[in-house]
């Protein structure tokens, strides 16, 4: 059942503004600050993120000139959830985007959205439900009757029904609190809800705010929902009209991803250069938490290169998503993704 969320206390706004600033608000049109001008021959494209601009790969690609090597001037803009990014790519408000592939599958199944995933970014879905101690929560089913903070367009909220179905949670007993995403962390820290659906990478941020370690359930591990996570998405018309543009963009992005995996200690200062409000120490911990969770690099990346995807695992991903929503529709893996635009010479992550 859906209940209204009480207004946040005014000091929560102050707390969050001091702790996290306005991350992402000044990244519209972000480009390398060391470049005084942009050569006329660079192709300008817009890259719509799925959320706040906190991931390493794209800032490293920008900072190290990996996109510039591909004759691209990339304008990075923040996102408002995978659902919103999918809509923007489907309506060609941006050339490239990051979105959870589960959201892409839903958009295709429900609306025949004209877009495809062209490279894997997060090999494994990292959605989690973190919760406060002392509430008698020992298994996912113990979330019944509890309140959970979520964001309407975020993939971890959209995909909660799959987790609930897999773990036997009666969704009708959940009290959802849809709060401004900028206030999520403070609201959870102030115990304005029992739980919070978010991503693995945000664990270091929340733990710093509350001053202790946090408990959580993983969609992948506790829900046995092993599927692809975030991907680079493109409108189908661009794939047909300008395939070389897509190849160049993907090549620069994957080079940034490879460098970020090889040099995690550098990502904090690089991101701070573009997002001054960010905390380099927390940023590094966030990136390392994803690497340790194996959310970024999986078996396919070691075998076939970064960005790679396969029919078998995409078929499994499609089944997990459609079954969770009770959608009875045939959707082929080829309609969801393509590896046509990956580099001919694969970029591999460092060996473990």
TrEMBL record:
Listed PROSITE patterns: PROKAR_LIPOPROTEIN (PS51257)
* Swiss-Prot/TrEMBL GO biological process terms: thiamine biosynthetic process
Pathway annotation: Cofactor biosynthesis; thiamine diphosphate biosynthesis
SUPFAM superfamilies listed in its UniProt record: Periplasmic binding protein-like II
Keywords on this record?
Iron, Metal-binding, Pyridoxal phosphate, Signal, Thiamine biosynthesis, Transferase
Pfam families on file? NMT1
Name the InterPro entries on file: NMT1/THI5, SsuA/THI5
Where do the TM regions start and end? Answer: none
Domain SsuA/THI5-like stretches: 56-266
GO molecular-function annotation terms?
A: metal ion binding; transferase activity
Signal sequence span is 1-24
Kindly state which reaction or reactions the protein catalyses.
N(6)-(pyridoxal phosphate)-L-lysyl-[4-amino-5-hydroxymethyl-2-methylpyrimidine phosphate synthase] + L-histidyl-[4-amino-5-hydroxymethyl-2-methylpyrimidine phosphate synthase] + 2 Fe(3+) + 4 H2O = L-lysyl-[4-amino-5-hydroxymethyl-2-methylpyrimidine phosphate synthase] + (2S)-2-amino-5-hydroxy-4-oxopentanoyl-[4-amino-5-hydroxymethyl-2-methylpyrimidine phosphate synthase] + 4-amino-2-methyl-5-(phosphooxymethyl)pyrimidine + 3-oxopropanoate + 2 Fe(2+) + 2 H(+)
Function text: Responsible for the formation of the pyrimidine heterocycle in the thiamine biosynthesis pathway. Catalyzes the formation of hydroxymethylpyrimidine phosphate (HMP-P) from histidine and pyridoxal phosphate (PLP). The protein uses PLP and the active site histidine to form HMP-P, generating an inactive enzyme. The enzyme can only undergo a single turnover, which suggests it is a suicide enzyme.
Quaternary structure? Homodimer.
Instruction: Write out the similarity annotation.
Output: Belongs to the NMT1/THI5 family.
Q: What protein is this chain from? A: Thiamine pyrimidine synthase
The taxonomy runs: Bacteria, Bacillati, Bacillota, Clostridia, Eubacteriales
């Amino acid at each position: 059942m859906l209940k209204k969320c009480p207004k946040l206390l005014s000091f929560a706004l102050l707390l969050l503004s001091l702790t996290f600033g306005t991350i992402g608000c000044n990244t519209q049109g972000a480009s390398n600050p060391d470049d005084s001008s942009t050569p006329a021959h660079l192709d300008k494209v817009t890259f719509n993120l799925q959320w706040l601009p906190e991931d390493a790969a794209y800032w490293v690609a920008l900072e190290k000139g990996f996109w510039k090597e591909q004759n691209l001037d990339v304008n990075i803009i923040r996102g408002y959830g995978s659902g919103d990014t999918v809509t923007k790519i489907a309506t060609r408000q941006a050339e490239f985007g990051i979105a959870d592939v589960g959201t892409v599958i839903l958009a295709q199944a429900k609306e025949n959205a004209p877009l495809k995933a062209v490279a894997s970014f997060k090999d494994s879905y990292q959605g989690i439900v973190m919760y406060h101690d002392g509430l008698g929560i020992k298994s996912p089913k113990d979330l019944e009757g509890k309140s959970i903070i979520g964001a309407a367009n975020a993939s971890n909220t959209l995909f909660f029904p799959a987790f609930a179905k897999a773990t036997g949670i009666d969704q009708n007993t959940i009290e959802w609190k849809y709060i401004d995403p900028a206030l999520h962390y403070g609201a959870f820290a102030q115990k304005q809800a029992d739980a919070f659906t978010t991503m693995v990478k945000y664990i270091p941020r929340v733990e710093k705010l509350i001053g202790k370690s946090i408990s959580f359930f993983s969609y992948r591990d506790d829900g046995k929902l092993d599927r692809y996570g975030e991907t680079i998405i493109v409108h189908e018309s661009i794939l047909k009209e300008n395939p070389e543009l897509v190849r160049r963009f993907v090549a620069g992005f994957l080079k940034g991803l490879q460098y970020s995996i090889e040099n995690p200690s550098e990502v904090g200062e690089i991101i701070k250069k573009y997002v001054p409000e960010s905390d380099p120490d927390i940023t590094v911990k966030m990136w390392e938490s994803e690497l340790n969770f194996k959310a970024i690099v999986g078996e396919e990346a070691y075998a076939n290169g970064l960005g790679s995807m396969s029919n078998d695992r995409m078929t499994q991903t499609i089944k997990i998503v459609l079954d969770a929503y009770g959608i009875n529709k045939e959707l082929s893996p080829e309609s969801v993704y393509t590896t046509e635009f990956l580099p001919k010479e694969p970029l591999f992550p460092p060996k473990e």
